[in-house]
Each structure stands twice: as C-alpha cells, then as structure tokens.
Amino acid sequence: MVIFKKIADITAYLTNHRQQARSIGFVPTMGALHKGHVSLLEHARSNGDLTVVSIFVNPTQFNDKKDFDAYPISIEEDIHMLEQAGCDVVFIPHAHEIYPPGLSQPPVYELGYIDTVLEGANRPGHFKGVGQVVARLLHIVMPHRLYLGQKDYQQVMVIKQVAAQIPELQYIDVVICPTVREDDGLAMSSRNRRLTDPQRALSSLLYQCLVSVQAKAGIDTFAKVQKECMDIMTEKGLQPEYVSLADARTMQLLPDYDNSRPMIALIAARVGNVRLIDNIFLQPVPVA
Q1: Beta bridge partner(s), residue 245
Q2: 175 contacts 145 by C-beta, under 8 angstroms
Q3: Residues with catalytic annotation?
C-alpha cells in the first residue's frame, strides 16, 4: 500500500497505472473508518480495480462548525485498517492541497429539488460543499468506478448529479453499495463513535422505524406510520427530524405509499448531540 499527500505525486502514480490499462476504483472518505468503508473497498477489489481511498475531512460541507470540530479523527487506525483490507493507494491531502491559496472560487453545481428537501433542508450548504469536494477529488483521481454507500443515499444522488454536469467525468460508473449494519440494525457510521452506551442502545430505533415503514406498506397509510415513528422516537428521548418516503430515482417526496414507483424510506434523528441518518428500500432495488 502506498500513501500520498500531494496531488502531483498521486496523479503521476495513477497516470502510470492507467497506461497499463488497469481500472481504478475510488472510495472517498472522511476517515474514522469502519466495516462499511471496508465493504466499499471489497466491492472495488472484486471488480479487479486498483483501489484508491481518500481521507479528507472537508470543511465546506459542515454547516455546523461544532459538528466539524467534533468529527472523529483516527488516521493511524484508518491506515492500519486499509492496509489489512488490501487497499492499494491512500490519499491523505491537507486542506491547502484541495483548496490551495489563490484557487478561484470552486464551481457551484446545479442541484435543484434534491437540495431543498430532507438533508438539503436540514443542513443548508451541505450538498454544495459535498459537490465541490467530490468534483475536486474525482478530477485528481479520475477513477473508472466510484464506490459509495447506500446509507448516504441522498448524498449519492447529489454526487451523481454533479458528475453528470462535468463532461470529463461522465464516464465514471457510480456504484452504490448496500449499507453495512450492526447486529441490532444500526447503520455503521463514523458518528456512532460519539454515542454513549445508553445512546447507542437507543440508536437502533432508527432502523426499527424504517423496518416498520417497509412492513406496513399496503396495510396502513404512510402518514399513520410516520406519526407512530416520530412519536416513539420522541417518547424514548430522541429528537427526530424527519421520517420520509421518496421516489428512489428522483428523491421526490411522496405523501403515501405508491407501488408504481421504486420507494425509499429515509430517517434522521439526533441522539443526544449526535445526528444520525439511515434509509431502506421498500422493495428490492439493485444498488451495486
């Protein structure tokens, strides 16, 4: 495994591998890695890709500075985990490499409706920052395939929309990989490290609510199931932000179940001062 911190060094290395006609699979991360990240790497390896993982905590996608300051950093553990998982290349740039002094204002991509709902509505400016940093990283790595986790489904849709607006990146195949979960269903997330033991025990409620939304399709109205989920989270001490139903292709919010569309249920709640999100498809949808 080789580690790069400079753009010039990693681009030279990857250019050489492209000349050998080897495909490149890219997993962008903000570090604090877990088994979910490793599963993305394993998907890339199964396709025979040269695997590249970036670790960069992007300041422009945090609309809350306290959230940025509290984001867990574990570079040495991350490097060890990637080495054990068989990663080929790790890119750990400093902020001034990604946003160098004198760099003109990064482009702003048209996100439209998707930036006005759910995560877009609750975290103003978040997806603007995501689009900017991912576009920058994709221009540096120029991968054949980009591997992203389903847990951040709305973010995945944003990234696909951004890549579609950049002619030189439209060839990239975006591979959405299934969410990796703990035994009680909690989606693996770097933020889980910040949960106390009692908070961790309560966090499985998010997945339980999603399963309820999925199971009651065609039995109850979504409005009824939504209220039940919001009420039980509030009763248990969580601070729910949304329990929503959307078209999985467009992220258009749906007022009720609609079997003519591929549906996805999405949820966000605060457990103490930790904000968690999750989602589940309501019918089988290919994600990889």
Answers
A1: 265
A2: yes
A3: 37
d(CA 70, CA 67): 5
SS3 of the chain: the string is CEEECCHHHHHHHHHHHHHCCCCEEEEEECCCCCHHHHHHHHHHHHCCCEEEEEECCCHHHCCCHHHHHHCCCCHHHHHHHHHHCCCCEEECCCHHHHCCCCCCCCCCCCCHHHHCCCHHHHCCCHHHHHHHHHHHHHHHHCCCEEEEEHHHHHHHHHHHHHHHCCHHHCCCEEEEECCCECCCCCECCHHHHHCCHHHHHHHCHHHHHHHHHHHCECCECHHHHHHHHHHHHHHCCCEEEEEEEEECCCCCECCCCCCCCCEEEEEEEEECCEEEEEEEECCCCCCC
The pLDDT value recorded for residue 288 is 47
Residues linked to residue 101 through DSSP beta bridges, in sequence order: none
Q: Which amino acid is at 95?
A: A
Residue 36 pLDDT > 70: yes
CA distance 219 to 280: 18
Reported as a single tens digit per residue, the pLDDT across 247-270 is 999 999 999 999 999 999 999 999
Contact status, residue 184 vs residue 205, Cβ threshold 8 Å: no
Tokens linked to 47: 């396709």
Where do the domains of the chain lie, and which CATH numbers do they carry?
Answer: 2-177 (3.40.50.620), 190-278 (3.30.1300.10)
Strand 239-247's sheet: what is its strand order?
A: 239-247, 263-271, 274-281
Q: Is the pLDDT of residue 46 over 80?
A: yes
Which two structure tokens, joined as six digits, stand for 88?
């080929």
